[in-house]
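Example 3.2
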Amino acid sequence: MLNDTFFQKFASEWLAAWNAHDLERILGHYDDHFEFSSPVLARVSPASGGKLRGKDAARMYWSRGLAARPDLHFELIALLKGVNTAVIHYRGLDHKLCAEFFIFGADGKILSSHAHGE
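Structure, written as tokens:
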């Protein structure tokens, strides 16, 4: 089972990677075949159904998003920890409230993440 130290470090690193706009650093947190869902993805790519799978698909989607939003910055509000799961509550795009739910493998890599927003 992942511990409090892991979750604190993960949240700090995940936010820092996004705020640095460092795509490879961001992707380093994820399993090669992870699943991701997001209402933003559903809006900008309706054919996706709001879901993607794997680092290659995420790299393509997130690289476009980072290029389009050079001002993107995430600000931590709260970190909620579960059993090999976590929720990061933060301010994201245009300072809107967001939360992302993560499921981790035993190796600490993200197997699944689900973004939520206003």
